[in-house]
Write a structure and sequence with these properties.
- It is a single chain.
- The model has no long low-confidence stretch (mean pLDDT about 80).
- This protein has helices at about 1-25, 35-45, 55-60, 65-80, 95-130, 135-150, 150-165, 180-215, 220-225, 230-255, 255-270, 275-285, 285-315.
- About 75% of the residues lie in helices and about 0% in strands.
- Helix 5 runs antiparallel to helix 6 (about 135-150) and helix 9 (about 220-225) runs antiparallel to helix 10 (about 230-255).
- By secondary structure, the protein is mainly α.
Length: about 325
């Protein structure tokens, strides 16, 4: 297990490196640059013309160097100094300090959404497989298709717009920290996490149902039925663990969807997390901040997928890592 873990960690290095290179390059293909955004913002707030010495600003921000030199400076600061540096848009806070303030908020949203997703998808998927072709199975499959077809941002807009029109009520849009008001904090995250969780539960439920049906047709399950074991024992003790190996893989692969969905949901519900920070940085062409956020996302996703791989031997004792 130790040798396998070491190999996987070493393989993460080139993966994360390629991700950082691609993001660092691709974000610079977006029309406009940070100087244009600064000039436009100054004109909007000042109400007049704004003269800028582009060459001086580019030199001050380090944008006068070739892209590969900018990348070398950025990655060198991370490796040797342990810092992402300061945002191009100014401010006294370092990028990692901004990320550290907002990361717990996005993490809470993601964890709650994942718990809701699992609480819906796993029991409904198992029930749908065990009661195949019954009314409950058809209802679950229909709900799953609707969940796959409905975009989460569309559901978020419906929850915000229609209750405010019909009932003069809307979900809370002012963040409350858990330390200040635990119940208010959970109420604030209730609707965003419900939307993210239910949207992801549709595909996971269908996969759980498919894998359970495949396992329930195996010979050892028929033998368990023939021995007269109760249905709960057959399903829980013999079927679920074997069926959940692909499901665990899917949960790990769902993390990018949760991250991408959080970017949209955070902007719809005014959640001050990493998603809001990413959109603001993109709008201002703050390249170091965008690159730092993508590096954090890449490390999180690859780390979670590694942990999912390490769960396999528990689900199936026949799996051994060497």
């Amino acid at each position: 297990m130790t040798a396998y873990l070491l190999r996987r960690v070493l393989l993460l290095v080139p993966t994360v490196f390629l991700v950082t290179v691609l993001v660092f390059l691709l974000v610079r293909f977006i029309p406009g640059d940070v100087i244009d955004m600064m000039a436009e913002r100054a004109m909007r707030t000042g109400g007049g013309s704004f003269l800028v010495d582009r060459e001086a600003l580019e030199k001050a921000l380090g944008l006068d160097k070739p892209v590969h030199e900018q990348y070398a400076v950025w990655i060198g600061n991370i490796i040797f100094k342990g810092t992402f540096g300061k945002p191009l848009t100014g401010g006294s806070y370092l990028i990692e300090e901004r990320i550290a303030r907002r990361l717990p908020i996005t993490a809470e949203l993601g964890i709650l959404a994942l718990l809701i997703q699992l609480a819906i998808a796993l029991p409904v998927g198992v029930y749908s497989a065990v009661r195949q072709d019954t009314g409950g199975d058809y209802a679950a499959r229909t709900a799953a298709v609707i969940g796959l077809a409905a975009p989460n941002f569309w559901l978020a807009m419906l929850i915000i717009i229609f209750p405010s029109i019909w009932f003069r009520w809307q979900p809370p849009i002012e963040h409350v920290s858990f330390g200040a008001d635990p119940l208010g904090n959970l109420y604030f995250f209730l609707f965003p996490s419900l939307i993210l969780g239910t949207a992801g539960s549709a595909g996971l439920m269908r996969l759980t149902r498919t894998m359970m049906l495949e396992v329930l047709r195996q010979d050892y399950i028929r033998t368990a039925w023939a021995k007269g074991l109760k249905e709960r024992v057959v399903v829980v003790r013999h079927a679920i663990k074997n069926a959940f190996i692909p499901v665990a893989t899917s949960i790990g692969m769902d993390l990018p969807r949760l991250v991408g969905g959080a970017v949209i949901i955070e902007n719809v519900f005014n959640i001050p997390g990493l998603g809001r920070l990413a959109i603001d940085a993109l709008q201002l062409r703050d390249y170091p901040t965008v690159s730092a956020l993508n590096l954090v996302a890449a490390l999180t996703i690859t780390g979670v997928n590694l942990m999912v791989d390490l769960v396999y031997p528990y689900l199936d004792p026949r799996i051994r890592y060497r």
